[in-house]
Amino acid sequence: MTMTDAAKAKLATLVVLLGGLAVIATAWGFQLIGGYLPCKLCLEQRIPYYAGLPLVLIALLVPSRPWLRAVLLLAVAAVFVYGAGLGTYQAGAEWGFWAGPTDCGGGGAGPASAADMLSALKATRVVSCTEASWRMFGLSFAGWNVVASVGLALVALIGAYFSRKS
């Protein structure tokens, strides 16, 4: 049995939604369960998921308008390409290929007194954007985000292609 172009487009859209949800849930799991605090760039790399996944959900809900699904999936692909760029920037900084951001690793409001400053210093764990806190098969969280973002962008493009054909 062969799938219609509309069914292929819907399947690709569903894969992007479930894959994106799995990635962002994994990031939150490492943070909340694993205790890995995200740096500034790590938090910025989540934004494409927060922006792209609602668009994917809308694309799933407009089956009678294949042109709209195609446009939404093209936008989603662009969002995930941007996310891959952020991940590449951080992974390159972690490997020392280029400098990371100068404002990464600290922030927040200043203390009201010297005592507040001392207690804040004791309680604060600074997370650097240029040091990988975890690696698997040589890739850090940022590196795996590049892999996931590129994969999701490609599947979104496939979905847009089949949406246009249907």
From TrEMBL:
Record bears the keyword Transmembrane: yes
One Pfam assignment: DsbB
GO process annotations (BP): protein folding
Gene Ontology CC terms: membrane
One of the record's GO molecular function terms: protein-disulfide reductase activity
Compartments reported by the entry: Membrane
Keyword vocabulary terms for this entry: Membrane, Transmembrane, Transmembrane helix
Domain of life of the native organism: Bacteria
Residues that span the membrane, as ranges: 45-63, 70-89, 141-162
Topology term for the membrane: Multi-pass membrane protein
Protein name: Putative DsbB-like disulfide oxidoreductase
